[in-house]
Design a protein that fits this description.
binds magnesium ion, globular, binds adenosine-5'-diphosphate, Rossmann fold
């Protein structure tokens, strides 16, 4: 099972499409790098995964817990160091 599963995550800020249908999986024990130019949507993606902002559409699962339906369960399982 993937420890992080991202399924077609999207987020708009007004007319700006910050994240468009992003999907990926991270396996347990894997070191995963999310790379892209300035403005690519990395920070917005991580903010959604860490439940700081809600996704516009799509969903993601951390240890099987939905960032939309179970944000407190996700928070219990993560540490974020910006
Ligand atoms: N709070 C916000 N309000 C409006 N636009 C935003 C906001 N956060 C990010 N954006 C826009 O969304 C896009 C993606 O930004 P961001 O996720 O910060 O990219 P990255 O971290 O890859 O540089 C950019 O066009 C940025 O200007
Ligand atoms: Mg950033």
């Amino acid at each position: 099972m993937a420890i992080v599963e991202v399924k077609e995550l999207s987020k708009n800020f007004g007319k700006v499409q910050a994240v468009k249908e992003v999907s990926f999986e991270i396996k347990e024990g894997e070191a995963f790098g999310l790379l892209g130019p300035n403005g690519a949507g990395k920070t917005t993606t991580i903010s959604m995964l860490s439940t700081l902002i809600p996704p516009g559409s799509g969903d993601a699962f951390v240890d099987g817990k939905s960032i939309i339906r179970e944000p407190m369960e996700v928070k219990k399982r993560i540490g974020v160091v910006p």
